[in-house]
Specification:
Length: 302
Amino acid sequence: MNVLELDDTKLLYIGPPNRDGTPGRCTHLSGVNAGLEGVLLSDHPDGFEFGQQRIVKSKGAKQPGAKFLRALREEREFDFTVHIFGRTAREAQMRRTAWFRSWSTGRPGHLCFFSQNLGWHFIRVQRGDDPPRPTLGVDLADSLQYGFTESYDMHVVSMDSDYSSFDEEITWVNKLGLNEATLRSRNTGEYELWPRYTMNGPGRWWIEDPLDAEDEIRLLSTPMLAANEELRIDTNPQRRTARVYSPATGIDGRNVWGQLGGRRWIKPVPAGESKEIVVRIEGGTLASSLIMQGTPKFEGPY
């Protein structure tokens, strides 16, 4: 059955990637194909929709009330119950083992929601402080509807409290030899978006900082790239990076953030808006290309 054929919200859990890089185990918890792997989500899960926020404020000795400074989004905690079942006791126990082996305290998996409103949303989760607790007993219960079953109370945590959707991506190639283009970065999320850029050599790139005023322009230049090099830049203040990759550097790349000379992108794309960003190439070719990506962030799964 197709996810578009039902109004029910679809919920998947995908475990951490395997050591060889292949995707982790996928479990259909709710919606289309729910219970396909023998695990079902119970009613009334807690923590899925709204995350905890901490208000930072200041107070004076004689000040009435307080002054708002900012709001900090805390890690998000989920509490829910799953039912694990099988046609035989052995099958139910095998499914139980597979379910708990797909969870880790140090390597996050993903809860994936699909709704008719906003499509797919994802959040990284891992086991929390409290261990899973069985709600029945030592032995599996035998029911007419599901066979042998057991229920577990789960407590999981997301260190990054925001949901993500698929990346917004634009690719520009200097086919016409104009050496300049205006790209539109779109933010469909509820929080600010910091663009990421991937560009090839040879040449030096100039990328606009999306300032608030449309008539202002502030371009930042990158280090000069050789013909076989690729530069990747993340403008997010929490993980600012600029690394060059080539056959000589291998998969780890080379850090070139210091070559920006202290210059950095200071403005994100505001929530629910789009910004035009000018890009230029100096000393490039008709094969010069730039990829602009951004990950919209949301508070809730739908």
